[in-house]
């Protein structure tokens, strides 16, 4: 081995006057330096040389050395004593071959590595030159021409948004929502403003009221709002985010330096860049989320955490707090988070039971009322003043028959305004909207009357108005009944709409029992048919009292006042039990032109204050109701 370390040639090992055992040991050591131990072990096992390698017989050891060095291409049998020197020469030849191969392989690898380094350096130089060229100047002839084209396009406006023009500019223009507006302002105009959820039908002024409430609060010194407080508005139905946090416009996200396009100077040094979201933009002001009930549930939960912490935390596997290349603002965002202290106002058309309970528990609630016909007329009149147009008598009333939404009423008026600008001859007309203009717009738009107001002065037998609720809107339900003598006495039947619902059918059977009790009439002697006009589904027992008086009217041939509407569950004892949605039901009765609403006594406290155009009476028992509904 010493001879090898001194750089002696392999042939010199054979020429040295050394015992053959020493030569074999030296050649084994040389082979171990040429081949790694793994390769030697593998060849030993593959050619089954274990016993030869460790043999005390020198001939067998030379055979093993030859087979390992030649990888099985050399000796096939153990050499004899006469062939031993020749075998050692073969071993030297095979080891020399391995040394030559290893030398060439190492040289090729070194050349490849050198070429790769040179190419990498060249690529980085080219990349730096490219970046320098791009950063050399912000503008050139092409970018300047494109900017001029954009500015020219931006200076030309064809469509002015009528909704922006007619948007309420003060609380007086938010028609029909006096109670909701007072409640909203009181919650905002405080040293400790609360998060708020606004409930109500679409187009009644929730967004406008929220925007005006912030402006009012900014003028008060004791509120935390100031002139810089923003009103940031976003639509919950279109707000999308990526669960992997690649993008999150609401809360913010982190742009890593490789995949998500951080700034060029940050990408070069591998620095991730946080992008703040709308919650940070709304810091110190109001974040308004329209249709908050449609917001993704996971995103709602993340928003709740921001409401608690008043900050947004960022994290990234690329962030190294000890990296000196990280700008101070990025380090601030990662270490402390982004500020997000704001008042959340969410608006929804959903029922409160459909809103996330955790979100509701952190917010106070304000209910916006459905708009009455008078409210719609007021909105139309306000809009006509802003359009500087005169209305023919009855235009507001006509529009109010086809919508309960302030936004849609304004759209109908705007369409009629455009229609009225030119007459049939194409000449510019007077600045006036006529009934004919509105009727034409309604016909073209295929609008349907929201509620038909019929003649309610004349009483009818077997016909009564019940009351129902759908969402935030109440409406009247027409119920009629007729009776015939049974073909066979004592075998009468009762028929009712199959689509009305099981609870409504139970109300019919309850009514039959009550009628038998208070009139002493055997209803089994009659075939009774009760019908809900329109085939609507009734989800609940609230039509029970109305069904009862309707059947009694048909049985006794007593006419029922048609200007009265009834709601209440009927019990087997004839008691009128409380039901839900009283506020909405009274609203529906007002739109129909009803003069009197009969409600259960236990619902008396739910009647809105200040009703002028409708009377509400509370009753305990069906006999009290009969005294009211039947014409004298």
TrEMBL record:
Residues 458-632 form the Lon proteolytic domain. It catalyses: Hydrolysis of proteins in presence of ATP. Pfam families: AAA, Lon_C. Its EC number is 3.4.21.53. The keyword NAD does not apply. One of its GO terms (biological process) is proteolysis. The active site is at 542, 585. InterPro entries: AAA+_ATPase, ATPase_AAA_core, Lon_proteolytic, Lon_Prtase, P-loop_NTPase, Peptidase_S16_AS, Ribosomal_Su5_D2-typ_SF, Ribsml_uS5_D2-typ_fold_subgr. PROSITE patterns: LON_PROTEOLYTIC (PS51786), LON_SER (PS01046), SIGMA54_INTERACT_4 (PS50045). SMART domains: AAA. Residues 179-351 form the Sigma-54 factor interaction domain. GO terms for molecular function: ATP binding; ATP hydrolysis activity; ATP-dependent peptidase activity; serine-type endopeptidase activity. Coiled coil: none annotated. Keywords: Hydrolase, Protease, Serine protease. Belongs to the peptidase S16 family. This is endopeptidase La. It comes from Clostridium disporicum.
């Amino acid at each position: 081995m010493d001879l090898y370390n001194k750089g002696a040639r392999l042939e010199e090992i054979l020429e040295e006057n050394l015992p053959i055992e020493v030569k074999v040991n030296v050649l084994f050591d040389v082979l171990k330096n040429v081949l790694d131990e793994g390769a030697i072990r593998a060849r030993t096992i593959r050619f089954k040389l274990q016993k030869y390698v460790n043999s005390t017989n020198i001939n067998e050891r030379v055979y093993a050395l030859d087979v390992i060095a030649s990888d099985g291409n050399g000796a096939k049998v153990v050499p004899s004593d006469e062939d031993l020197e020749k075998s050692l020469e073969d071993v030297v030849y095979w080891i020399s071959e391995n040394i030559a191969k290893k030398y060439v392989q190492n040289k090729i690898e070194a050349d490849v590595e050198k070429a790769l380094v040179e190419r990498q350096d060249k690529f980085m130089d080219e990349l730096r030159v490219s970046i320098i060229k791009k950063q050399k100047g912000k503008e050139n002839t092409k970018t300047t021409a494109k900017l001029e084209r954009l500015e020219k396009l931006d200076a030309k406006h064809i469509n002015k948004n009528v909704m922006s023009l007619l948007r309420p500019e003060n609380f007086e223009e938010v028609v029909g929502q006096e109670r909701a507006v007072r409640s909203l302002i009181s919650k905002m105009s405080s040293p400790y403003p609360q998060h708020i959820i606004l409930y109500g039908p679409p187009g009644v002024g929730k967004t406008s009221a929220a925007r005006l409430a912030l402006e009012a609060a900014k003028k008060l010194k004791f509120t935390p709002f100031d002139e810089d407080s923003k009103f940031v508005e976003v639509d919950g139905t279109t707000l999308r985010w990526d669960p992997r946090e690649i993008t999150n416009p609401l809360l913010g996200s982190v742009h890593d330096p490789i995949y998500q396009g951080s700034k060029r100077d940050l990408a070069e040094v591998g620095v991730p860049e946080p992008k703040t979201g709308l919650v940070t933009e709304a810091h110190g002001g109001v974040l308004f989320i329209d249709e908050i009930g449609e917001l993704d549930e996971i995103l709602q939960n993340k928003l709740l955490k921001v409401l608690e912490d008043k900050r947004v935390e960022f994290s990234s596997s690329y962030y190294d707090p000890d990296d000196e290349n990280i700008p101070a603002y990025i380090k601030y965002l990662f270490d402390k988070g982004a500020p997000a202290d704001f008042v959340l106002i969410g608006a929804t058309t959903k029922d409160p039971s459909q809103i996330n309970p955790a979100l509701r528990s952190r917010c106070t609630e304000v209910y916006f009322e459905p708009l009455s016909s008078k409210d719609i007329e007021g909105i139309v009149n306000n809009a006509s003043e802003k359009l500087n147009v005169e209305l023919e008598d009855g235009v507001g009333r006509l529009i109010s028959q086809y919508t309960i939404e302030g936004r849609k009423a304004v759209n109908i008026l705007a369409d009629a305004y455009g229609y009225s600008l030119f007459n049939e001859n194409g000449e510019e007309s007077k600045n006036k909207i006529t009934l004919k203009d509105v009727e034409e717009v309604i016909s073209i738009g295929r609008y349907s009357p929201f509620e038909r107001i019929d003649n309610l002065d004349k009483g009818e037998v077997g016909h009564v108005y019940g009351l129902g609720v759908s969402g935030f809107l109440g409406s009247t339900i027409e119920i009629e009944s007729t009776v015939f003598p049974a073909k066979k006495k004592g075998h009468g039947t009762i028929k009712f709409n199959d689509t009305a619902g099981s609870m409504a059918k139970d109300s019919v059977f309850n009514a039959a029992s009550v009628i038998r009790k208070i009139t002493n009439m055997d209803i089994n002697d009659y075939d009774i048919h009760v019908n809900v006009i329109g085939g609507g589904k009734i989800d609940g027992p609230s039509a029970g009292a109305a069904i009862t008086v309707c059947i009694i009217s048909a049985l006794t041939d007593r006419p029922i006042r048609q200007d009265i509407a009834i709601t209440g569950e009927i019990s087997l004892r004839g008691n009128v039990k409380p039901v839900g949605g009283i506020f909405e039901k009274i609203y529906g009765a007002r739109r129909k032109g009803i003069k009197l609403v009969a409600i259960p006594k236990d619902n008396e406290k739910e009647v809105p204050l200040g009703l002028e155009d409708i009377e509400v009476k509370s009753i305990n028992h069906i006999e009290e109701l009969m005294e009211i509904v039947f014409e004298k």
